[in-house]
Amino acid sequence: MLKILFILLITTSTLYVIQNPSKSGEAFNTKSNQGKTFVRPLAERETMPRPTDFTVDYTSHNTVALSWDHPYNAQQKFDYQIYRNKVLLVELPSSQKVYVDEHLLPSQGYQYEIFAVDQTGWRSHANNLKVTTHENIAPTFLERITKIELKKNLELNSDLYTFDVQDLNNDTLNFTLKGQDKSLFAIDSETGTLKNKQYLIRDTQYQLQIEVTDGNSKASTPFTIKT
User: If both were cysteines, with which of 2, 7, 48, 106 could 124 make a disulfide (CB 3.0 to 4.6 Å apart)?
Assistant: First the structure.
């Protein structure tokens, strides 16, 4: 009878912890039932080893690649929780030991913490590190065009010019057309190819400005189109 009662208590307590993890990943130490408070037995609070070798493998202006290890076999059922600046970033299975954090701000400091969390919701002590992302390098025009001269009459949507831009961070670029005559023209936001949306008048100068951004920094240059 005592053996059966002991098993029942363990099962009930474990079930409670599985069903009641806190938002930060720690299980509650106490529970309330009909006005009474119950404390989880110390015998059930097994210590989960913390992750080891928590390392930054790669850093760029907007990316941090992390890796780690753990004393347990990866086939054992537990999870990892990674926090960035005290906010839960991701929860990963025990089989995963790498994570790439993207879309970060350049020249920004970040603090990472990693916990191992067992199946009942109890987590290990943290392993932590700090990292600063690299400075962003703004895109640059490889050729500064100030005037585009058109020698003949053009059909609608003719390719007038393609702006050649270099981005040393290999970011995705976005082109925008500005200036007083921008309504007469169109720019492909991905390729930087300029087209005419309307028929152009001979012996006229159109005032435009091209702007390109990598999501963090921008470059722009004014130019004219002479017909």
Answer: 48
Tokens of 175: 């082109």
Helices of type H across the chain:
2-19
The Cα 94–Cα 62 span in angstroms is: 26
Structural domains of the chain sorted by starting position, each given as residue range(s) with its CATH number in brackets? 40-135 (2.60.40.10), 140-226 (2.60.40.60)
Produce one character per residue of 162-172: b if its CB has 16 or more CB atoms within 10 Å, e if not.
Answer: ebebebebebe
Local structure of residue 152 (DSSP, 8 states): S
What pLDDT, in 10s, does the model give residues 55-82? Answer: 999 999 999 999 999 999 877 889 999 9
Contact 161, 223 (CB under 8 A): no
- Structure tokens, 198: 């309307």
